[in-house]
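Q: Convert this sequence to structure tokens.
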Amino acid sequence: MRDDSASYYDSQEFTELLASYENMLSDGSTVYFDSLDIANIAEYYTISGEPEKSDAAIEYGLNLHPSDPDILIAKAGNLLQRGRKDEATVIAESIDDPENQELLYLKGVIAIASDDPDTADAWFTQAVELSDNDPGMFNDIIVKFMDNRYFDLCQKWLDMALVLSPDSRNFIELQADLFFDTGQADSAIEWYNHLLDEFAYDTYYWEQLGRIYYEKNDFPQAKECFEFIEAIDPDNSSAHMMKAGCLFSMEQWDEAYKIYRSLLDDDRNSYTLLYYCGRCMYEQANYDDALFYLTKSHEMLLLDPDVPQELYTELFYVIASSHYKNGNPAQARTYLYEGLAIDPDDQDLQELARQILPDEEAKLFTTTNKN
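A:
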């Protein structure tokens, strides 16, 4: 799901407001802003990933408007984002403004943080009623439920939103995203295609479709989707990478290699790209070049403490096999042992052990012979 929360923050009105606030900070003057403007500035900094600036705006606002509900709500929202739920709750409960829709929405978000979706649903219902069914409020509620994987409630609110605004691109997209997130592939395909009928140059929809087809192992269809993205945005490296993945899965090794190698020019230390270049060479029986890339990939992997063990296992298997096929049995055994030390039950490594080790030694690594 992509973030479409910009709207107001992209407007000329807000751009001028923010410029006025930042000019005030730069020249050290004091300028009056109303409370809602300060709350919007604080929220803008929050969604822009600048929490310290958001905090500073809130403190400035509270100096101008002590105990103002809008600014206190923004402050509680910041605390909640940092996991300080109890402090946010104290602020929310201190605000005596029962007709404030943003306060009711905040209480719903606090309920979600407390793993109480039904209470959140009740607060959100009150907030929407006060907002006169504001589409923006519906959007925020749907996204909150979706982000926290309360998919049934997300669908409930989407159903209501689509009744109110059946032609809303935003709600149609959220429905497609919900189908995507819940694994309802055929429905997701239908809804993304519906969006593409009108917005054929939106690369997000093509990417989502490509990912669905990839997961369905329909690699030719997935490849076509990523080629549409390339036509729209020739510099889209993600589309290049996914297209290469389709070619790789279709065993079109040379075509996949060309893309991986091109991407490697811009990211020479990517162990993932090095690995796939090596795999493509390996599958084409070019073991010297395979070992060049795979050994380099291993060197890069060692610099990343978060690499999953499965990737090491795959890498050691291909390196060991490349050495064996290249007539280097000693090196093959070294990498084989390293792989088996990580996962002695790996079927590919066990099969390779049966090929290159003496029978009695190979039996030690065969699952059927373990106690």
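Residues 309-325 form the longest helix (17 residues).
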